Every structure is written in C-alpha cells, then in structure tokens.
Amino acid sequence: MPVFAANLTMMFTELPFLDRFDAAADAGFAAVEYLFPYEVPPEAIAERLARNSLEQALFNLPPGDWAAGERGIAALPGRFDALKSDVDKALDYAAATGAKRLHLMAGLADPRDREAASCYRRSVACTAERLADEGIDLLIEPINGRNMPGYFLNDFGTAERLIAELALPNLKLQFDIYHRQILHGDVAMALRHLMPVTGHIQIASVPSRHEPDGEELNYHYLFEEIDRLGYGGFVGCEYNPRGQTLDGLGWFKPFRRS
Ligand SMILES: O=C(O)[C@@H](O)C(=O)CO
Ligand SMILES: [Mg+2]
C-alpha cells in the first residue's frame, strides 16, 4: 500500500501553515511534504512533526525570487554561488525535520540554450554531491509548460538522460504523475521503465489538478501498479482540493493511518 504524504502547500490551506501538520495527522496521513518551509523556523516545523508523529517526505530547495517570477535558479547563469548558500539553508531544515529528499527546481530557461544546460548540469551534480554527504537524495522533476510556462526541465527523457549520465546514486527522478500525463501520457509504462531511478512520486487528477479520484487517469490501477513495482517511497498528494480538504478525502479512506 503506498504511503501518502499530504502536500501542505496545496492541502489544508483553510488553516495557517503550522496547523496544517496537525490537520494532516488527524486526517490519517503518516507523512507530509510542501514546496517551501523557509518562512517558518525549522524548530517550529520539527515540533509539529514530532507532536503528530509525521514523517517529512520532501521539500524544495529555495527557488530564487518566487514573488518576482523565478522558479528555481539551477539553470540560470551566474547564480551558482547563490545556489550553494541555498543548499546550506535547505540542509538546516533537512537536519531539523529529518527530510531525506530535496527537490531542486531548474528555473525558467530555454531547454535548447547550451549555457543554461551546462549550468543546470553543474548545479545538479554539485548539489547531489553535497547532499550525498548528509545521506540525502536530490530530486529533479519535469514540469509541464501549461502550469509553468518556460520551465527548463519540461521533458522526462531529458531528466532520465541526465540521471544516467551523471550516475550519482542519490540523484533521482521526482515522478509527478500529473505532469507526466500532460507532457507525454503513457503513465503506467513510464512508471515501470523509470521506477529504478524514481525517488518520489506525486499525484493529482488530470486535467484539473484536484483529488486523484476521477477524470483522465485511473488512480486505483496506478496505485496497484506502484505497489506491484515495489516502490518503497512516498506518494505526495500535490493537488488543489475542489472544496474543503477533508470533504475531498473520500479517495484516501482505504489508506488512512489507523
Ligand atoms: O509539481 C510541482 O509543481 C511541484 O512539485 C514543484 O516542486 C514546483 O512547483
Ligand atoms: Mg510536483
């Protein structure tokens, strides 16, 4: 049975950020993820995790100036020094929360731009090596251009090739099924093919990015497939609830922590 992580950036947004940890645990989740923890001190997050016996599945390294439209800096020329201090900051949060996976966002750049590609490769390699010292996996995630126009890493094949070329044991794929379906389809075959390099999975319905309980994808089948493939990681619930978060958790009843 997959272990689901509530995504606290999207779920339980009826509540202030720290209270979402309590709500996720009360709803039966054993783990949580979110995009960015950096507005809140690491100790405050650690306290909520401990109080609720929750595991911290994943979060993202700092993304640059999000409010100004940046979506990561790994592929941006001239930002390598900033990335190194971002990694230190993220590692402080990982140490406090026990997170064993961090996602590095690529940024907005033309995937055909050679300088961006070379920056991205260097950023990914150096960050993975730094994280390996702490026993942490680095995740890279292809994101579809409808949700994030101009995002550099917009192709699963590119991510697969980079992971193979760099051959760093802690560099893994963040397989967001929502993005996969929009970018390429063929989700079940891709899960089979990419499972050896997959370090984290995320889910949402397609096309609405709501609860994984209908529309284009058969999640009942995909959850069984993920189990059949022996996946031992977390499945992040990265969806926008249609209404109140709790009202949309019917799909989750069979998986609740007892
Ligand atoms: O799919 C997504 O959008 C996220 O997993 C992410 O990290 C960037 O927004
Ligand atoms: Mg995602």
TrEMBL record:
Gene3D superfamilies cross-referenced by the UniProt entry: Divalent-metal-dependent TIM barrel enzymes
EC number from the UniProt entry: 5.3.1.22
Biological process annotations from GO: glyoxylate metabolic process
GO molecular function: hydroxypyruvate isomerase activity
Domain Xylose isomerase-like TIM barrel residues, every copy: 21-253
InterPro entries (UniProt xref): HPT_OtnI_isomerases, HyI-like, Sugar_Epim/Isomerase, Xyl_isomerase-like_sf, Xyl_isomerase-like_TIM-brl
UniProt entry keywords in alphabetical sequence: Isomerase, Plasmid
Family matches, as SUPFAM superfamilies: Xylose isomerase-like
Active site per the UniProt annotation: 141, 238
Record carries keyword Isomerase: yes
Keyword Membrane: no
Pfam family for this entry, one: AP_endonuc_2
Family of this protein: Belongs to the hyi family.
Protein name: Hydroxypyruvate isomerase
Organism: Rhizobium meliloti (strain 1021) (Ensifer meliloti)
